[in-house]
Amino acid sequence: MYPVRRTAPKGAADPGWQRISWDEALDTIAARLTAAAHEYGPESVVFASASPSTSAMSDSIDWVDRLRRAVGSPNFAVYMELCAWGRMGAPQFTFGAPVPAAYMPDLDNAGCILFWGYNPSVARLAHATATTAALRRGAKLVVVDPRRAGLASKADHWLRVRPGTDSALALAMTHVMITHGWYDEDFVRRWTNAPLLVRGDTGELLRADGDPAGYVAWAGRPVRYDPSAGQYEVDESQLDLSGTHVVPTAAGQVVCRPVFAVLAEECARMTPEAEDLTGVPAEEIEACARTLWESRPVAFYTWSGLEQHSNVTQTVRAIDVLYTLTGCLDAPGGNVLFSAVPSNPVAPRAAPAEQVHTLGFAERPLGPARLGFVTGSALYEAALGGRVRALLTFGANLVMAHGDTARGRKALAAVDFVAHADLFLNPTAELADIVLPVAAAFEAEALRIGFETSQDAQSLVQLRTPLAAPRGEARSDLQIVFALAERLGVGDQFFGGDIEAAFRHQLEPAGITLEQLRDNPAGVRVPLTTAYRKYRDTGFRTPTRKIELYSETLGAAGAPPLPAYSEPATSPRSRPDLAAEFPLVLTCAKSLWFCESQHRGIAALRKSTPDPQVELHPDTAAARGIAAGDWVRISTPAGSVRARAKFNAGLDPSVVCGQHGWWQGCADLDLSGYPVEGPGSANLNLVLPQQPGDPISDSAPLRSSLCDITPL
């Protein structure tokens, strides 16, 4: 309700919150951020935000990003490795673009829809309703998920994959498609780097003699490819995709094969093991591949179900290569970069010179830090090492959202100054020095230029007007950002604190005024035309200007240049020493009734799920003497937490599925909360690790680890 400051030491049972004025709160925050940047460098200051995909930070995150850049901080913690890497970061190595984060599924025109590790029924209702409409008109649906949840019950193919083995499944499906000729050969030849030759001696792409920037393909003879022009010496129709060729070079003859031939061999090598690794029968793999080919165009989407694993980058690479074979990228009914309403950007992309100072860049230069984002593990390590001196968070419940909660609490307690802006006090706010009260989304004005889910949605511009007054002295995130900008001496970049002026600046290229939007609460539409297959004019933003089945960028970093399978770092196969005590694979999924770590205090929602749950197969429960509804202990190598057993006969008996985010009580239902750590905790992330993470992105294995379930 009001700004408060801590009066007791961090770690005390009662923070001793004391009400203060907005002026005191904002002045203190600005002074502490400035002092930290001056004494320890701007890299000692970290900004953090709740994910805009799952919170009202969608209204203001770009302005938070603009603020941290204006004050010189290279560090922004937004859960990129847990909630965006598979859609935005990893696809850059294949497409040079965020597919499917920006190239959205054209569900209205798709012949086949592929959801991989994604349940729109609890994540994006616009996709769920559009998919239901597509199924009514005859579209096919393929769902890859360890659980038969949401639309999976209506799928033509539901592939019950073992958590963390998705890349093996994708490689096996790719093998089937290549073997049967179920791929768009013309698209692959013209628009991917499939024809480029791979040296048999080094495994690297062959370069033209005397031209390190040029590549070589085979068309009855060696032919040069110039990536700067995106052209071969011959028409692409003459290029070979198979065979072994001896190429004369200045250093002697080199045996080479096209990228596509090497890819085909790698996928064939994986196929005999795929059924055993993934749990998906070989006949289902082939049937699904047939559907993807025969029911084109294919539109696909994936989300955090794939991102929270120790092998996410290679998994996404494998799925992206599989999708490439369909030839549906940026085509009607495929994944399309819809036209956008012209607008002035709020936070342009950071310059590479800034990114080298981002926490974690030195250890993982190709990961989220390359895009200016800090991972949870990198943040905690830097904080515990004294390299983070000030932290400003907007709704980011870091303690509950990241793995290894106990380490996270120690890390936040080690930071000299933490300020947190939120609607409610939560476990992260409890470790702050100052907490600012934030107005709820429907208590604040916000501008939205385009809604990403379809071309029709992208054409809509809305100004959301408040439906109720803020509680107490709460202010919107935007008001907080603009007020801080003034105190931090960068008010000129925030229109002198005038939010309306900022909105007008954003809208200027579209020719829309705030007055028009206020007169039309449902929004104003800007006529837009979808341009398809834009790559024909521009190529792709990759080193070869082609879709990169073979990634030299990854190869130069010591990672596999072609998609490869690696067993999850903590699984019964990779850690047989742990499997005897922890024989079950533990994954997790969000509840239909709550949003991440929020809303369990709302009686209307909590009454549907009063207690934390863990899903397990009835046979798994029976073998342990567990009945439905029993309180059970979920034990991992990191400790144990509690939940109620919920039976799910659709799960593999070796897999159990928990829920993260449990801490809140609900006074209206007389339900007490749960401690964040210690005896009686129901906080799943307390016993889930951050490491070993993905070697490229540092993504934590929150959805593929080991556990056992025992009665309490």
Please explain how this structure is put together.
It is a single chain. This protein is an alpha/beta fold. Helix content is 29%, strand content 18%. It has 26 helices and 29 strands. Strands 2-1-20-19-18-3-4 form a 7-stranded mixed sheet, covered by helices on one side. Helix 1 crosses helix 19 and helix 8 (166-180) packs parallel to helix 13.
Task: Tell me the total number of β-strands.
Answer: 29
What is the strand arrangement across the widest sheet? Answer: 2-1-20-19-18-3-4
Category from helices, strands and their pairing: alpha/beta
Distance between the termini: 39 Å
Radius of gyration: 26 Å
Residues in β-strands, percent: 15-25%
Q: Share of helix among residues?
A: 25-40%
Count of helical regions: 26
From the structure above, extract its key features.
712 residues; seven-stranded mixed beta sheet; globular; alpha/beta
What is the secondary structure topology, with strand pairs?
Blueprint: E1 4-5, E2 18-19, H1 22-40, E3 45-49, H2 61-70, E4 75-77, H3 80-83, H4 85-89, H5 92-95, E5 104-105, E6 112-116, H6 120-123, H7 125-136, E7 140-144, E8 157-159, H8 166-180, H9 185-191, E9 197-199, E10 207-208, E11 211-218, E12 222-226, E13 231-232, E14 245-249, E15 252-258, H10 259-278, H11 282-294, E16 298-302, H12 304-307, H13 312-325, E17 335-336, H14 352-355, H15 376-384, E18 390-394, H16 398-401, H17 405-414, E19 417-422, E20 434-437, E21 446-449, H18 455-458, E22 460-464, H19 477-487, H20 499-507, H21 514-519, E23 524-525, H22 535-538, H23 552-556, H24 576-579, E24 584-588, H25 603-606, E25 613-616, H26 618-622, E26 631-636, E27 639-647, E28 655-658, E29 705-711
